[in-house]
User: Fold this.
Amino acid sequence: MLSRAENEMLCRTGPGTPMGELFRRFWMPALLMTDLPEPGCEPVRLKVLGENLVAFRDTDGKVGVLERHCPHRLADMWFGRNENAGLACAYHGWKFDVDGNCMEMPTETAESSYKHKVRMVSYPTQEYGGVVWVYMGPSEQQPELPQMEWCRVPDDQRVVRSWLQDSNYMQATEGEIDSAHISFNHRWMNMDAMPAAQRTPQRLLPDGRPMRVLDSAPRLTVKETDYGFTYGSRREVGEGQYYWRVTQFLLPFYSMIPGPSRSAGSGRCWVPVDDEHNMVFQYQASADGPMSEQQRVRASASPENLTRQHHELKDGTIIDCWRPQRQRGNDYLIDRRMQKFDNYTGIASGREQDMAMTDGMGPIPQRWREHLGTTDIAIITARKILLRLARELQGGKEPFAPHHGDTYRVRPIDIVSDEADFVKLYDKHADLAMAKV
Assistant:
């Protein structure tokens, strides 16, 4: 259980906040590369860590992320003209390049040097793994990109999707490292009713039931690492055998989820938009060669029916983002008959099953009211690590992980073994936890 003060520190990520300053030490996903499909295309409105931004791909193909509002009279640069290697404000024509330099100031005289004194806030970007990444921290602390395997494989071996979620980043992250909930929240009693595209390969018992539903109280063991932590979830499946799901949590908000057929793993990250919304990036990759059409369909099956929207946040800010059809405003299209006969929640899609639970906690949960149990150890560990690193940064100690991107070259593990001890299991199968690309 966290105190109110700890909960505030954990959840607030705007400029000047302890957690916001920690996150600004990392490269973060900002948008999909395909959201800026060609040179000179329409800009994209973003909000990251509480800052209103605009992203654009200039006519030379370079990507820039600038503050949203023109430094002249604060007009919205999204309405600007993307032309001749810069973004020109539609109000008075002040034009800026991807680095924030003022290229043109047509309202001043030709001999004026004023344009050399005015800059826009700009943030470094890199295109990597199908994603535009942004770094929003001190220039002298600019780190390496994290060398996660899904980023390193060729484009035809990866599917990356993104959408806006209506909650603080932390409760969404916690849902991903909660192995116990899959026995309930994602349970299908009638497998014939499960949408075909969501039927991912999984470990089965002799009677056809998934192993993950047999033991609803898995034994969890956490091992802290330089990049965050890994934890093993052990379920007894009989005859001295255990089903182990080993999940990776990578700082500051990435997961890698185990599955028997995911050679390079799958997972998600939750980038804070503001304190009440996060942008989810979902990735699945194969290190063994191009993904088949069936694999791509499965990787894109949940959430269903993403549409591109100009979405207004609670503070009136408009951002350009993908949104799922099932969301809070329509109760995720819950079907009570389905809940009675087919699955545990009455919600058809796995991601929306998660969203209904985490969004329903409220924008920022009152964690001081929680009663945590033995299966919450990974969640407790994530909170402790993030709070510790934020406090250390306040004291002048820079985090280790951003500057050691190679430590992110790990995989999750999905295995049935007679080994009951997590540390011994991990040491025995350490090769399975290492990225191959």
